[in-house]
Write a structure and sequence with these properties.
The relative contact order is 0.25. 30% of the residues lie in helices and 40% in strands. By secondary structure, it is of the alpha+beta class. The mean pLDDT is 89.
């Protein structure tokens, strides 16, 4: 159905938004997903909320100068 397709698309877009912000090598520790549908004047509004807990290295290696 159109509603199921909209839910799948919302979930996909929420994952793509998170994936774009992850550092390479990030490890996903947990994930919480919620899909909300609302009726707005006869039109269905679909929202996806995805919370992901990750472990990622945020430090930057810099060599020390020997001077």
């Amino acid at each position: 159905t159109d509603l199921e397709t909209a839910k799948e698309l919302a979930l996909q877009q929420s994952w793509e938004a998170i994936w774009a912000g992850l550092a390479p090598g990030a490890e996903i520790l947990s994930e919480e997903v919620e899909v909300i549908t609302e009726d707005h004047n006869g039109d269905m509004l679909v929202r996806a909320r995805r919370i992901v807990e990750v472990h990622e290295e945020i430090g930057v290696f810099r060599a020390l100068s020997s001077e």
